[in-house]
Please model this.
Amino acid sequence: MAAALAKPHVLLILGIRPDLIRASRVIHLLRERPEIDFTFMWSGQHYADNLKDVFIRELGLPNPDVELGATGNSDAEVVGSVISRLSPALAEMQPDVVVFLGDTNTVMGCIAAAQLNLPVVHIEGCMRSYDWRMPEEKYRTIIDHTSDRVYTYFPEYKEQGVREGLNPRNIVVIKNLIVDVLQHYFFDRKAEYDEYASDDFFAERGIKRDEFFLMTCHRRESVEAPEPLKAILDVIERSPWPVYFPASYRTQKRLVEFGMSLPSNTIMVDPIGYRELLALLANSRGALTDSGTVVEETAVLGVPSLQIRKATERPQVYDCGSSVKFDPAVPEQYDADQLYAKLEWLRGQTWEHGLGDGQSSERLVDDLVAAVVSGEIRGHRPEDSHIDVSRSYRDDGLPDSVSVP
Model:
């Protein structure tokens, strides 16, 4: 009897907690597909229990099949560690496609995959803030141009990629994955959350239901220099409600280094799990955040947000009217009382978020599996180019036969 043909091997590499959230439904769906072999790898960028393991448990995800163990004390060290550790692992595994998500240090592993001529897929591609200060903007650009297939959320994102020279054939619009995640893990379990978010839940945290703002703040442009961080603290000090602040370890470290104290209305705690985050968001007066994921989550949950950003790759939250802008680089342009007045006004509004329909993960997995199984996952072949590349492959133009005197 002839040996069975090996199934195509799909390798997914993640590295931070928001990746786990967005990819949660994709991971479950890929594991259910009998046509492929699926491997889940963790880069090691986030490694603490409250930055990784608690999310795996609460999202019902399997533990990673491979722990890459890439770490470092700076972005450059982490990126170098990801590439140097991933390259030999890929050389040994030889997957049929290497899948990344987002815009973190981990996605720079695409360089290791590309050097081995392995097809690269980028989930959440073609998003642009056009703020080149952000390392994420550089990472997005590099991986999009490295990828054989890019899954993006909206037609406007696809157009951004095409304007940069990406092949439109390689860009697939799927809508936003966060809608799927919230539908499955929150709205379908609303009764569980109502029971979980009891009066005791809030009392234990020193806050009252609907009488606090939830804050997150972690971006480099927010916390790596004292000026923007002070501007952010000045704004939260003016909050008419208590501020509950699960602070990233980076932010906690910078507060100490800069000798800054939190306002008296702010309760700072270590990072929290996803279940707790959703319970707090859904029962807050709004979110004060520099997180792209959180402003999308609040838009879907019907909760207003103050977006602490100069530029965003997610302008749809402004389109639907769910978010107020605050740029900490120019705090003098904003009246703090008006920022909170706008948030209060938004509490009485409703909006259509327009981010998705809850089927994005299915669309992504169906397309990816079909492309891998059919052998059509590669997107950089010259014959598939959307521009004329014939000059690069032309003959030398010299006579077929010449005589040397």
The first helix runs from residue 17 to 31. The domain at 180-346 is CATH 3.40.50.2000 (Rossmann fold). The longest strand covers residues 9-14.
